[in-house]
Amino acid sequence: MSTIDLLPNVTSFSIGVILMALSSVFAVIHRALERYRDPLREVPGPFLARWTSLWLAYQVRMGRRYLVVDALHKKYGPIVRIAPNHVSVAHKDAINVVYGQGSRALDKSPYYHAFVSDKASIFSTVDRQEHAQKRRLVSQGFSYKSLMSVTPLLHANLYHFVEKIDEISQRPGSIDVLQWFNFLAFDILSDLAFGEPIGMVTNESDVVTVMCADGKVKEENAISLVDEREHLAAVVGIHPWFKTLSKFIPDPFFIRGHKSSTGLVDLARRRVTKRLESGSYREDILNKLIETRVEESGALTPEQVTELIAETVTLLIAGSDTTSNSITAIIHLVLTHPRVHEKLLQHLRDAVPDSQVPKHEDVKDIPYLTAVIEEGLRYYATTAIGLHRSVPRDGVLCLGKFFPEGTEMSVPAYTIQHDRTIWGDPENFRPERWLEEKDLGRYLLTFGKGPRQCLGRNLAYIEMQLVIATMLLRYDLKLESDNLETTEGFMHKPLRMIVEVKRKELAC
Ligand code: HEM
């Protein structure tokens, strides 16, 4: 960056720092005045967290929120104050209170405003009615029938992926399979939500062409866009002022995060516009999203096109690296647990006898595979933080304590999924527990719970079953390290997984 480029930032920096400092001083004075009637004053937690949201924002920025919150629960017990207005409750009885269904459901908190890029989507809208309407429109693309009609697209992407991995496995050295699972997941999602694969597997790269609002076309790294945008939102969502203030801070983390947000909308705009202009028909999720809107209003209005772009961006973000990160972590767990590996391979060989690339119908009903996936999601915790909810007007009673209107609450997923009172031996990776006891899904928070739970769960399972089965059946995988390094933005993600991949000898 040249000195000239820096000049505007110096001014922005000064304004940003002054505003941040003033707002912090103001917040501390305000809290000091409020202290005597602070309804959360009895809730234990770190000293700084009681006074400023910057403490929690900092933990998120460092990519370690779930570990810090887990340690706090070990120190203080099930109820911990992690920000002036935020209470984390790590207890199984809190799950239904915070993420319950129906009229008891708590709404998403203003934290989710940080996830709005251009227009609120099904994921980021906080308003209950607006959400219900969006969910009705989007969910049609995710019904079992709709998903069955798109399995040929999934299989086609998987076959292409396998051809590439076959080719790469002949090259010397190891590869980062996380990157390849990312390429595949992005290709699948863009095939379903944008109407064509983005071409990452073919190009062995995540560089994509995007269209800016002014019509200009440029290139971006799609995976970085998603990572940076999601991490930024997870930080600035902590306090309603942070999103605006962060635009004045010349830290590359904030600058890139804000640019990524726009970059993703640009990416979706190019794809959706192309599809609408072509007027072509194709059996995919984008088609369902278009059809449901056209059925309701005759033709798409410009407002509806913007909304369509917002929803497709959400699907790309919500459904791509979440799935590839989970696949990576589960395969890592399997490879580092030889007993589970051997047993799973036996079940897979029985179900897919001719060593072909499996189809959905081959792998959908293998109980041990599903148990491995569930245990992997529990142990690794793709969603590791507690998802933010707001206490409604009459307040909420949780674990015998009353929390007043406006308090933010969350149930930390990683801590619940490693709670000894629920799992007995949580630090053991033991898929059998899911076959022994049927009701454990109640405590798996990976896909959220209640009215805002994941809409793409079935699609994620199909992808996980197919890719995990294919990788284990078709290749010998040798890990470079038994340690999986991870970080956390909104989701918990591996940084890489280096593996030597060799095609298995085919039995005669
Ligand atoms: C293993 C993979 C996945 C994980 C771990 C995951 C996790 C989650 C979680 C935790 C939520 C709730 C978020 C909250 O309350 O803040 C969520 C919501 C959502 N997910 Fe997923 N997800 C996955 C795959 C997918 C896929 C493949 C799609 C679709 C393309 C998808 C689409 C959505 C949507 C649309 C929502 C918003 C639902 C609503 O608010 O009504 N997800 N996901």
TrEMBL record:
Q: Where does heme bind?
A: 454
Q: Which SUPFAM superfamilies would you find in this protein's record?
A: Cytochrome P450 (SSF48264)
Q: TM spans, by residue?
A: 12-33
Q: Which Gene3D superfamilies match?
A: Cytochrome P450
Task: Answer whether the UniProt record assigns the keyword Transmembrane to this protein.
Answer: yes
Name the UniProt key words of this record, in alphabetical order: Heme, Iron, Membrane, Metal-binding, Monooxygenase, Oxidoreductase, Transmembrane, Transmembrane helix
Q: What molecular function terms (GO) are annotated for this protein?
A: heme binding; iron ion binding; monooxygenase activity; oxidoreductase activity, acting on paired donors, with incorporation or reduction of molecular oxygen
Q: Tell me its family.
A: Belongs to the cytochrome P450 family.
Instruction: Name the pathway it acts in.
Output: Secondary metabolite biosynthesis
Listed cofactors: heme
Name it.
Uncharacterized protein
The major lineage groups are: Eukaryota, Fungi, Dikarya, Basidiomycota, Agaricomycotina
